[in-house]
Amino acid sequence: MTLALHRFGAIMSAMARKPSQAAAAPRHRSRIAPNLPGQMTLTGQVLIAMPAMADTRFATSVIYVCAHTGDGAMGIVVNRPLESPSFADLLQQLGVDPVPPARSIRLCQGGPVDHARGFVLHSADWTGEGSLRVDDATALTASLDILKAIAGGGGPEHGMLALGYAGWGPGQLEQEIGQNAWLSAPADPALLFDDQHATKWRRALAKLKVDPLLLSTAAGRA
Q1: DSSP string, 30-64
Q2: Does the residue 112 lie in any domain?
Q3: How many CA atoms lie within 13 A of 78 on its CB side?
Q4: Which range marks the domain in which residue 110 is found?
Q5: Is residue 189 a part of any domain in this protein?
Q6: Residue 140, Cβ neighbours under 10 Å: how many?
Q7: Residue 219 counted as domain residue
Q8: Using a CB cutoff of 8 Å and minimum separation of 24, what contacts does 95-104 make?
Q9: 220 domain-assigned
């Protein structure tokens, strides 16, 4: 899955990292306008990998869709926690004080595209320069300001730091949904931000009242 950055360039500005540290509220659908009249955007929804997902990188994944337009889509995998680096280690590499931080957020593998880029997915009670407001409850920020705020004990109430992202070109996500690769469901703060990673896929399916053991590969988007 690849996505030319195009209009998403504003949220793709990198959080510079040292080369030595490589790292592998209810939401409702709204219309894509004006470039996709009559179609629905999945911005603010979660994508749930079908049990028969052919791409092993996305098996049992839950992806929060941060942007979905006629130019493509961009999302963050929310159930792939990283053991290293720690938040404190990352702050030290970036030269952000204080270390140790007054508070921490978890790190996740956000997707297979560009692991050298960092994105903080967070509650929208805090926004700064470079923040993308996904909806009323959630925002995405790719600047050091949010890391400084969190390290100092402030920042948003909820957040996670994703290294990398998942991306789709124009029409690619729609095609994959048509091929029964994904289901979509409303997101919620617990699904995005809690630490119960092992249960997120089943919890996301439960939103659709779907039992994965009974889920047919012939199912389409809910």
Answers
A1: -B--SSSTT-B--TTEEEEE-TT-S-GGGTT-EEE
A2: yes
A3: 32
A4: 6-16+25-207
A5: yes
A6: 26
A7: no
A8: 96/144, 96/147, 96/148, 96/151, 97/148, 97/151, 98/151, 98/152, 99/151, 101/150, 101/151, 101/152, 101/153, 102/151, 102/152, 102/153, 103/150, 103/151, 103/153, 103/155, 104/150
A9: no
Would you state the structure tokens that stand for residue 56, as one six-digit string? 């092993």
CATH number at residue 170: 3.40.1740.10
pLDDT in tens, the chain (222 residues): 222 223 334 343 333 333 222 222 333 333 333 333 445 799 999 999 999 898 999 999 999 999 999 999 999 999 999 999 999 999 999 999 999 999 999 999 999 999 889 999 999 999 998 899 999 999 999 999 999 999 999 999 999 999 999 999 999 999 999 999 999 999 999 999 999 999 999 999 999 998 887 775 444 444
